[in-house]
Input
Amino acid sequence: MDVSTHIEAVHAEVRRRNPGEAEFHQAVTEVLSSLGPALERHPEYVSGGIVERLCEPERQVAFRVPWVDDQGAVRVNRGFRIEFSSALGPYKGGLRFHPSVNLGIVKFLGFEQIFKNALTGMGIGGGKGGADFDPRGRSDGEIMRFCQSFMTELYRHIGERTDVPAGDIGVGGREIGFLFGQYKRLTNRFEAGVLTGKPVAWGGSHARTEATGYGTVFFAQEMLATRGKSFDGRRVVVSGSGNVAVYAIEKVQALGGRVVACSDSSGYVVDEDGIDLELLKEIKEVRRARLSVYAEVKPTAHFSARGTLYDVPCDIALPCATQNELGRDDAVALTKNGVLAVAEGANMPSTPEAIEVLRGAGVLFGPGKAANAGGVATSALEMQQNAARDQWTFEQTESRLAAVMRDIHTECRATADTYGGAPDDYVLGANIAGFLRVADAMAAQGIV
Ligand code: NDP
Output
């Protein structure tokens, strides 16, 4: 069978076997559309069924999460853990708590995670999990009870050598603390390496909180440098105002850029003075309030509940909120305003149509599986520190993160070049480089 027929057959089978899982189909399509040149050179991956096996998770767990709210009412959510690939190490990937979570979303995230984790060069497989629980407006007590119930099922499936979850949308340090406490109680083990993203005081790594946002900016910095440019003096928009967005903003500002807009799911804020990061952190992390409060407090800012922050003229855009938030029209607006680079801090934030527009216009485009790999890379550094019962300084950890991001950038370019693409075809480079590392391991480990 020729390579394109093989890829189309796998693709058709994924669609048939996973009906209605639009985001999972989208993630698979994006990877498979890059793999032709790699499979042409490695026919043994076709005969070894590597791509078919990669598209089917090794294990999928779905479970009931019952809990009691502050009014005494019983609530029921659905939890998931998709253990996608253990070819390179224990399953590794975050937990997302958001009402939109369903099987297809968790599978898309788990699938992306396989290649992202491979790109880091560290010994971690791919997985993802979460629940359709909405933490917004819930008290600390409700969050704790939900996390405890979630872990009461999840603990059977995880372990520092099996599967190591971390945070994602709706899961930060507070939730990781509650999850870890329940795991410890159920197992009677202080197994620090079972979860990453822990607070620094008891097993967490310095720079993990910052890592995804910082790493995205490091990746964008590398892309800009190939064209003799930098963040210094540039206008930047960053979507979202959660963990990834906040620390992307922090690093852009440290590099001399001016972040003029950010957002949440209710709208976006424009502040031509540059986003006041201390105020933003206070509103989002301490008060856990809506972004509109920023404009109520800061006279130079205005909040808009309609439209999109991608209409705000900028040199660099960092989508750091959620999947499919940057569509075709946004990409057209960005290119009309002369955007130089787009680096994805979120997972799959740009639609395929948007990516086509950006790349067609010669914009530097860093796909999430490369650009946001700094978070999981630093999680792997946290696992190393836990295994050694050690803790590195912030500076040591950040410099390891910066080196990982530089290496990923270099590898993407070199791989794109080797497999017939332009060196700045980061989509091709990231997909093939990640795939080859996993495929080599799978081929060596037999049909398992
Ligand atoms: P957080 O929960 O901390 O923040 C998410 C942010 O995105 C919030 O500001 C949220 O606003 C906003 N948001 C959510 N949905 C929408 C929407 N439909 N439109 C506009 N804004 C929206 O999550 P993280 O920062 O951790 O994650 C953000 C992205 O980065 C996700 O795609 C995640 O998978 C990815 N990522 C995260 C990593 C990490 O280490 N945390 C690692 C790699 C990738 P609101 O408060 O209104 O919901």
Summary: The pocket of NDP is lined by residues 167-170, 212, 240-245, 263-266, 320-322, 325, 345-347, 372, 375 (CB under 6 Å).
